[in-house]
Design goal:
The protein is an alpha/beta fold. It has one domain: Ribonuclease Z/Hydroxyacylglutathione hydrolase-like (Metallo-beta-lactamase, Chain A, 4-Layer Sandwich). The chain contains 7 helices and 14 strands. The strands form 2 sheets. The chain has a 7-stranded mixed β-sheet. A 7-stranded mixed β-sheet has the order 7-8-9-10-11-12-13. A hairpin with a 2-residue loop joins strand 7 and strand 8. The longest helix has 12 residues. The two termini are 14 Å apart.
Length: 257
């Protein structure tokens, strides 16, 4: 366990997850794109940072200067496209502390390319803070600041390896599917996790590279997590919100672990 209280080894510092963005790529239901705020053990990190994430952060008074690290599951704009805006905001607000960006192979190149497309010459501008890129190899534990992060390969076409991730923070394990169709790797990702956050894009329609609720439900007994919460729902899923037996996230939804 990491950073547990000294008095009693079984009691650890509080860990929380806040869904700053719980939506899909297209803002279904007026929701922000994927962005999860993980707080605990003197650490404040983002899991994914979709293009709308800086707006979601500022709505809740979260400064880019207060975020130690950003973990990225895959290289689609609704999961990493907010990073250029995040970096520029941190630069203009005179951040000085280092920032860690961890994700699949290709993350560093894609971030600099995105910055140049959106704001030419911005990738070369001087900054007061260092940016460290950590390339996550599949099924290998990596230390990312105060976090232990393990990435697992999933099935989602995005021009680079897509991952689900397990993150250990202060003795708690948060698992997240990223975007993927069903794969048995999710059973391993979710195993004994305190919280498993899983996408459920459609209610029952089968599409490549995404999970639907009914498929997930058929595998529910294999997912030995302590708590399961759905996210990344499109308008079809949102229309069935009263028919679901699994807990669903919404923007601003916070969970203490």
């Amino acid at each position: 366990m990491l950073d547990c209280l000294d008095e009693t080894p079984l009691i650890c510092k509080p860990v929380s997850i806040t869904f700053l963005g719980s939506g899909d790529a297209f803002g279904s239901g007026g929701r922000f794109q994927t962005c999860l705020l993980l707080e605990g053990a003197n650490c404040r990190s983002l899991i994914d940072c979709g293009a709308s994430s800086l707006v979601a952060m500022k709505q809740r008074g979260i400064s880019s200067a207060s975020v130690n690290a950003i973990l990225v599951t895959h290289l689609h704009g609704d999961h990493f496209g907010g990073i250029p805006f995040f970096i520029l905001d941190a630069q203009f607000s005179r951040r000085e502390t280092p920032l860690i960006l961890a994700g699949p192979p290709g993350l560093e190149a894609r971030v600099w390319q995105a910055m140049e497309v959106l704001f030419p010459n911005s990738s070369k501008a001087p900054r007061r803070f260092a940016i460290e890129f950590v390339e996550l190899a599949a099924e290998v534990s990596h230390r990312v600041g105060r976090l232990e992060v393990t990435a697992y390969p999933v099935i989602h076409a995005c021009g680079a390896p897509p991952y689900a991730i397990r993150v250990e923070c202060a003795g708690r394990v948060i698992a997240y599917s990223g975007d993927t169709e069903w794969t048995d790797k999710l059973v391993e990702v979710a195993d004994q996790a305190d919280l498993f956050i899983c996408e459920a894009y459609f209610f029952e329609k089968k599409v490549k590279f995404h999970l639907d609720y009914q498929t997930l439900l058929s595998h529910r007994q294999a997912l030995r997590c302590k708590r399961l919460v759905l996210t990344h729902m499109n308008s079809d899923m949102l229309a069935h919100s009263m028919d679901l037996s699994i807990e669903c996230a919404h923007d601003g939804f916070a969970i203490m672990l």
